[in-house]
Design a protein that fits this description.
The complex is a heterotrimer of chains A (224), B (58) and C (248).
Chain A (H helix, E strand, L loop, with lengths): L2 H18 L1 H22 L3 H23 L5 H6 L1 H7 L4 H30 L4 H29 L5 H28 L5 H29 L2
Helix pairs in contact in A: 1-6, 2-3, 2-6, 3-6, 3-7, 3-8, 6-7, 6-9, 7-8, 7-9, 8-9
Chain B lengths: L1 H5 L4 H47 L1
Chain C lengths: L1 H10 L2 H33 L13 H28 L2 H33 L7 H22 L3 H15 L2 H11 L19 H33 L4 H8 L2
Helix pairs in contact in C: 2-8, 3-4, 3-6, 3-8, 4-5, 4-6, 4-8, 5-6, 5-7
Chain lengths: 224, 58, 248
């Protein structure tokens, strides 16, 4: 089986498994919605304030929702021994990891991306900024999945991995958050957004090329 | 002399900074020294115990 | 390259490291005291007050060396991580985990002294500009490394996992250094490490350099002290440790 075929097969398998537990896809989405709803309830519904905060709030909520779902990338395969089989297989582990991360993003990041404009509207985000919001999330959420995969790979064997996972992954998420929110803010003010979007694209390229390798070596260490 | 301590009105900030730096650096160094000493004690205690056991068997 | 590898392998042996570090420590401590005393005296007493900032500028003598060390220690850890992962040298793992708390302490000191300097200078204890934010992230990365190492139960895996994490986090270091160049920040630009020479008066510069050297010596001293404790713990059953302790 060629590497490309193995990649597609693993991707299809992970998607099939995710589809069988369709209810679980709703969980991060619900979390995303609830976090965004909490903000107007907490800071007051003054429209100017909410609109100014909207870019950051949507991005932070997306980040937290991504963090919540990271565990699922390797957890079930770790528990039933499939992960070990993947490590032993002849296929390059970083490609296998990439397949699992792509599946994870399709199931968690993409729904988030599709729902975000509706929620941004709840916060009063200007319509000029919506396009940039979707684009920044399109570039940023895969980076979140990729970097998150490194963190999960490092902690997959640990008890109470969730706490330490956040500590490891959040500092690395911060640059994505900063540029993502900055892009949307700039769009809302009518300023050019190409700079921020190019940097997000650069993060994506960097993460696509390096994160699977780092996650693969981390997996080998965790499962040794 | 009192001018030195007063630091032109910035005494809190300057001496606060020097103080925090000193406290943290001393604490870290002390922790390292204590750990080393603890390991040495532990090892020598075990060696003494083993020597006693060996002698009592002989 | 060959002599470099020999150097690495020489220091890579735990008994050699333990013995030689033990011999070096008194000398290093002496040098540390000298550079520290000169730096503090020349900086706090001799150097003239800054014409803009007055006496508060003297915080530079602890803030800047601590900030430099926060980054320097991380680079040493990154180097140790590479040595550990590529050449499987055990001491590299010990150096990495012994350095982490020291680096975290320096990052913490840089943040606190910076805050104490910011209040009289900028009128605020904190601002979310690029330099301060990336330094805060550095502290979190250090804490994450320490947390991961203590969470993984198998010592071997712990060492290798922390090495990988250290290398992943190294992207933050250039961000910190260049943050004042890439962004409009409240924090001032690079004054000392510039291509066309430092932009600071000589009588203010020398104590600063002395403090920087003193802090570097402090790092080596405390890292060695910590590493010696760690080596004893890991090798407590080995013959050389028993001879060393039993012979006393």
């Amino acid at each position: 089986m060629s590497v490309w075929q193995a990649f597609i097969e693993l991707l299809k398998r992970d998607l099939r498994l995710a589809m069988r537990r369709r209810a679980e896809i709703a969980n991060p989405l619900l979390f995303f919605v609830m976090v965004i709803v909490l903000f107007p309830l907490g800071v007051g519904a003054e429209p100017n304030l909410l609109e100014r905060m909207s870019a950051g709030v949507v991005w932070v909520a997306a980040l937290l929702a991504a963090l919540l779902t990271l565990d699922s990338i390797f957890r079930s395969d770790f528990e039933d021994g499939t992960l070990e089989q993947l490590l032993l297989s002849a296929q390059p582990l970083s490609v296998m990891v990439l397949a699992k991360v792509v599946a994870h993003w399709l199931v968690t990041g993409l729904p988030l991306l599709l729902v975000a404009p509706l929620l941004a509207m709840l916060l009063g985000m200007k319509s000029e900024a919506m396009g940039t919001l979707m684009l920044s999330l399109l570039l940023g959420t895969p980076v979140l999945s990729l970097i998150g995969a490194i963190g999960v790979a490092l902690t997959v064997g640990l008890r109470r991995a969730g706490v330490i996972l956040s500590l490891l992954v959040l500092p690395l998420y911060v640059p994505v958050l900063i540029f993502g929110a900055a892009a949307v803010d700039a769009a809302a003010s009518g300023l050019p957004v190409s700079g921020q979007l190019y940097i997000l694209a650069a993060f994506l390229v960097l993460a696509l090329s390096l994160a699977p390798v780092a996650a693969a070596s981390a997996l080998r260490i965790s499962l040794s | 002399m009192s001018e030195f301590f007063h630091m032109g009105g910035y005494a809190l900030y300057v001496w606060g900074s020097v103080g925090v730096t000193a406290v943290v650096m001393i604490a870290i160094a002390a922790a390292a020294i204590l750990r080393h000493r603890r390991e040495l004690c532990r090892i020598s205690r075990r060696l003494r115990r083993e020597r006693k056991m060996y002698e009592s068997q002989a | 390259m060959n002599s470099f590898m020999k150097w690495i392998h020489k220091w890579g042996s735990p008994p050699w490291f333990y013995r030689v570090s033990g011999m070096m420590l008194p000398w290093l401590t002496g040098l540390f005291v000298i550079t520290l005393v000169y730096g503090l005296y020349a900086g706090l007493v001799l150097a003239p007050a800054d014409y803009q900032q007055g006496e508060s500028f003297r915080i530079i003598y602890v803030h800047v060396p601590a900030a430099w060390m926060g980054m320097f220690v991380y680079m040493v850890m990154a180097f140790a991580a590479v040595v550990h992962l590529v050449w499987r040298i055990k001491i590299a793992d010990v150096v990495l985990i012994s350095s982490a708390p020291i680096g975290a302490a320096f990052a913490f000191i840089a943040l606190v002294t910076g805050s104490l300097w910011g209040k009289p200078m900028w009128g605020t204890w904190w601002t979310w500009d690029a330099r301060l934010t990336s330094e805060l992230l550095l502290l979190f990365i250090y804490l994450g490394i320490i947390a991961l190492h203590s969470a993984v139960e198998d010592r071997q895996s712990a060492g290798r996992a922390t090495a990988v994490l250290t290398l992943v986090g190294v992207v933050n270091i250039p961000i910190i250094h260049y943050s004042v160049v890439w962004w409009n920040t409240l924090h001032q630009g690079t004054t000392v490490m510039r291509l066309d020479g430092p932009a600071i008066a000589a009588e203010m510069l020398w104590p600063l350099l002395s403090m920087a050297v003193a802090f570097k010596l402090y790092y080596v001293i405390v890292m060695m002290l910590s590493a010696r404790g760690e080596i004893l713990a890991r090798e407590r059953k080995s013959r050389w440790v028993r001879e060393l302790v039993g012979g006393e």
